[in-house]
């Protein structure tokens, strides 16, 4: 499977400009032969839009219809972060939309800080696993991937890749997360991690960039810089990492000795 991680410029605060930029990026990813394009957390509104995010959130059908049309038209699966209004409140969600298939949603479980906790309700369900171009993919959102338990749960349930829309804020710690923690999550679970961030700044928020696609052996298959919008591409071949899985049989040992995964 070929995957594209799309790093977006947070300075695009005009809704029409942001919408057009997302469509152009999806068209470019499809033209490059990508089977899946991954956009950042709250890609449609921007992460820093504040109460407007929740106030303007729509239900899943209304929120996803245009992106389903884009997926069908371009022949590419799309993973993106967006706010979804549910009967119980507003979810900070990741949607996985594939041509000719019903969209799949996951609500972020680990909300980060008072800002998110004031806008969203925390999700309470594990990520579904969906097959895209023959690869079994799970979804997490930003802060979720920093919790090894959530990644290990997906790996034990058979995920071969974890898709992570993110809005990683700029800091020395954030640089460590993008460059070290994300590849380690891939390595310790022997799967791929696709991590798509914003870059630049909007209002009081500044983002780290450094979107990355990491392989099961912890290698960086593709990465973006800190400052500029970019689309990074990588071919994901699970069969190429047999030696790494033999040398680092973490999942087999957990399954054999810790049957509950704990």
Please tell me about this protein's structure:
Helix content is 32%, strand content 29%. The strands form two sheets. Strands 1, 2, 3, 4, 5, 10, 11 and 14 form an eight-stranded mixed sheet that branches. It has a six-stranded mixed sheet with strand order 6-7-8-9-12-13, with helices on one face. It has 262 residues and is of the alpha/beta class. It contains eight helices and 14 strands.
Can you summarize this structure?
The protein has 262 residues and is an alpha/beta fold.
Features:
alpha/beta; six-stranded mixed sheet; 8 helices; eight-stranded mixed sheet; 14 strands; 262 residues; globular
Q: List unreliable stretches of 5+ residues.
A: none
Integer-rounded radius of gyration: 17 Å
Compute the number of helices.
8
The main sheet comes to: 8 strands, mixed
Shape field: globular
- Rounded to the nearest angstrom, the distance between the terminal CA atoms is 31 Å
**Structural class by sheet pairing and helices:** alpha/beta
Mean pLDDT: 96
User: How much helix is in the residues?
Assistant: 25-40%
- How many DSSP E strands? 14
How much of the sequence lies in strands comes to 25-35%
